[in-house]
Amino acid sequence: MSQHLPKNASIDLHLHTTYSDGRWSAEALLDHLAQEGFGLAAITDHDRVDTVANVQQAGEQRQIPVLAGVEISAEWYGKMGDVLCYGFDPQDAALHALTENIRQRAAANAQEVYEELLRRGYRFPHQQKFLQTNGGELRVAGDCANLLIKHGYVKNWPEALTLIREAGYREMKADMAETVDKVHRSGGVALIAHPGRGQREPLDFTWYTPELLDEVRSEIPLDGIEVYYPTHSPEQVETYLAYARQHHLLVSAGSDSHGPPGRLPIKYPAELCRDLFERLGIEVQPE
């Protein structure tokens, strides 16, 4: 990976593919990034450190530098607190064990939800077709939601989410303190993902106000905050940026893109994340 990055280079540090819950393959995403002239990206599939090496190799083939990245499903005293991690060792055994445990529990819950939906009379004759990117298998309960939508039982994700929750869907999370510790031991940095999202979506996300961030940071040495995020209001961005500067925290910027037909990657200037890049050994140059 290049150790230099122009300050105006286009970057996106929060992206998902079919390795987790995205709608396009890593190869298709990287093709898009190359076509659009991105200078660097981080593919942060949920709880997937095992795919990082393959993604980075695919990026090299397209001349797109790819940071080692992952979004780990975590919680703090029952509050959702997903953690964006960068620059870790993709071969670290402890990180592999942590994320594999989350995925195994999520797959077991997906099977429970699926069987309950069958008991309630739902049928999915086209399962193999609609889950072909998974090899036809259930990886997370969201796959059941996808089957409900594709088979015409519901019209949209909120309706599908209601049904899978009634059928026993539970979010599988790791402890945030353990997560951050393992990331640090692997040489990486850990930032709280989309901290302001819970203000608009309180049922699914935790709103990390400055006061709550203070509480978390009194126990857990988080390295930074995802300040720039599509649903953060200008006021939230200003608040989180001021907080990061006050406490000397790293700042990240990401679209949380899951691919078409939804939100696509966003061209953030590298300058926004200068401190983060420099912590990872990447110099952000004036021009």
Characteristic terms for this protein:
287 residues; TIM Barrel; 2 domains; four-stranded mixed beta sheet; globular
Write the layout of secondary structure elements.
Blueprint: E1 4-6, E2 10-15, H1 26-36, E3 40-43, H2 52-61, E4 66-67, E5 69-72, E6 74-76, E7 79-80, E8 83-86, H3 93-119, H4 127-130, H5 141-150, H6 157-166, E9 174-175, H7 176-185, E10 189-192, H8 210-217, E11 224-228, H9 234-246, E12 250-253, E13 268-269, H10 274-279, E14 283-285
Parallel strand pairs: 1-14, 2-3, 3-4, 6-9, 10-11, 11-12
Antiparallel strand pairs: 2-13, 5-8, 6-7, 8-10
Helix pairs in contact: 3-5, 5-6
For the record, the count of structural domains works out to 2
Shape-level CATH architecture of the largest domain: Alpha-Beta Barrel
Low-confidence stretches: none
Query: Helical region count?
Result: 10
Query: What's the β-strand tally?
Result: 14
In percent terms, what proportion of residues is strand?
A: 15-25%
Order of helices and strands: EEHEHEEEEEHHHHEHEHEHEEHE
**Tertiary shape:** globular
Could you give the order of strands across the largest sheet?
Answer: 5-8-10-11-12
CATH class category label of the largest domain:
Alpha Beta
Overall mean pLDDT: 94
Please state the structural category: alpha/beta
Main pleated sheet: 5 strands, mixed
Helix content: 25-40%
Cα distance spanning the termini = 19 Å
CATH level-3 fold name of the largest domain:
TIM Barrel
Q: What's the Cα radius of gyration? A: 19 Å
Going by CATH, the homologous superfamily of the largest domain would be Metal-dependent hydrolases
